[in-house]
């Protein structure tokens, strides 16, 4: 009787780990794998979608704008070689580009493409900016109408080529029927191909 009491006191004083070590499961077997902890919230992406409330400060928009600023700086410093290609002056109703300019950097990479087109009552100019891998990252559009309306578009693209945001702003005037979203044909992904394509109407 005394030896039984002594054994019980030893197990109790050793705590719960001693009791578990004496269980049949532990004999000759590895402990069962424990489920992994759920990932911490910080391991997930914390980038919010671009919205009308945050687009001015959103990281993806700011990144695209920095590409445009870099290219603009190269142009101001005379580090872009600009080549113009006048279009067909008879093109009306946006049937063709009336004017094109491509800007290439010192390595011959297209970094900027400017297009101009129009009709009897409106005109647009499109400045497309490309990063060092010639990926379209930012497009700025100025659209003017004969009724003294001016719209500005800012269109941003991610490194994967997907459009991340488009913002249209009425600068002045009563408005006009400029399209929204802006047409894909005036956001050229391949600047060299667009610059070299036919400029005549039809």
What is the rounded Rg? 32 Å
Largest sheet entry: 7 strands, antiparallel
Q: What is the spatial order of strands in the main beta sheet?
A: 1-2-3-4-5-6-7
Question: Would you report the number of β strands?
Answer: 7
Structural class: alpha+beta
Rounded mean pLDDT is 80
The low-confidence parts are 1-45
Helical element count?
4
- How much beta, percentage-wise? 25-35%
Shape category = globular
What is the H/E order?
HHHEEEEEEEH
Distance between the termini: 109 Å
Q: Please bin the fraction of helical residues.
A: 10-25%
Q: Could you explain how this protein is built, in words?
A:
Helix content is 21%, strand content 29%. The chain is an alpha+beta fold. It has a domain at 59-196.
Core attributes:
single chain; 202 residues; alpha+beta; seven-stranded antiparallel sheet; 4 helices; 7 strands; disordered N terminus
């Amino acid at each position: 009787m005394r030896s039984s009491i002594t054994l019980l006191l030893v197990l109790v004083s050793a705590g719960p780990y001693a009791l578990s070590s004496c269980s049949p499961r532990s004999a000759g077997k590895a402990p069962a794998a424990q489920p992994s902890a759920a990932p911490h919230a910080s391991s997930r992406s914390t980038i919010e979608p671009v919205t009308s409330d945050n687009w001015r400060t959103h990281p993806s928009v700011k990144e695209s704008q920095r590409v445009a600023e870099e290219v603009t700086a190269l142009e101001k410093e005379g580090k872009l070689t600009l080549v113009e290609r006048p279009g067909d002056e008879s093109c009306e109703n946006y049937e063709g580009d009336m004017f094109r300019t491509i800007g290439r950097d010192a390595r011959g990479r297209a970094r900027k493409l400017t297009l101009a087109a129009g009709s009897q009552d409106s005109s647009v100019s499109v400045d497309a900016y490309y990063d060092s891998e010639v990926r379209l990252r930012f497009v700025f559009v100025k659209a003017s109408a004969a009724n003294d309306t001016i719209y500005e578009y800012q269109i941003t693209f991610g490194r994967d080529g997907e459009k991340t945001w488009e913002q249209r702003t009425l600068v002045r005037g009563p408005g006009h029927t400029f399209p929204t979203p802006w047409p894909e044909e005036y956001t050229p992904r391949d600047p060299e191909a667009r610059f070299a394509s036919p400029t005549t109407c039809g």
